[in-house]
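User: My instructor asked us to take a sequence, write out its structure as tokens, and then describe one feature of it. I'm not sure where to start. Here is the sequence I was given:
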Amino acid sequence: MLFLVNQLFKIYFKINKLHLCKPLIRAIDSSSLKDEYSMAQRVTYKYYVGRKAMFDSDFKQAEEYLSFAFCHCHRATQKNKRMILIYLLPVKMLLGHMPTVQLLRKYDLLQFSDVTKAVGEGNLLLLNEALTKHEAFFIRCGIFLILEKLKIITYRNLFKKVYLLLRTHQLPLDAFLVALRFMQIVDVDIDEVQCIIANLIYMGHIKGYISHQHQKLVVSKQNPFPSLSSVS
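Assistant: Let's start with the prediction itself. The structure tokens for your sequence are:
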């Protein structure tokens, strides 16, 4: 049964009808036999369900399923492990876990190298360059729009650097504007800065509020930039 479900998954992904996967997932997850299928079929199942969770923006579930698929995929099948990693890496990065260069080199996925570096450093300029440089590869894999979501994490890491630099809990909005212009984002004004910060606060990436009267971001004195895995 699981073999048939996996074949249907393959077809639905190819024709971009992911909503048709839902009743199949429900049927397998409610089955008492779900842990008795061969490991190869379970790995394939977790791979497709993990990919669907990623496209549904359920990144923690996506990480769980794709990690299972990667860890239990036969070590001799390097090609399959690489295919799983193409989707696991963006999910891991959105949850704050950056891959090592050694891992990327081992599986010939150095297209992610500059993306990883940019997000970790809060370097929006490098991120834009990396996404543009490898755009064709990312689009072909169907992950370009997922990687675009890393921009908000990169903003968060850049703004955290501003906070660490100024060492105060009342941060002038102008300081963030300067940081963005340093990243060669010149078509941004103070209203857009407020919008970006408001989004970061709403998503839980910053604990604080904007004082419009004083044109400042007032952040919490305790853990103002929560870890990504705790808020995603």
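For the description part of your assignment, you could build on this observation: The first strand starts at residue 170 and ends at 172. Try explaining in your own words what that tells you about the chain.
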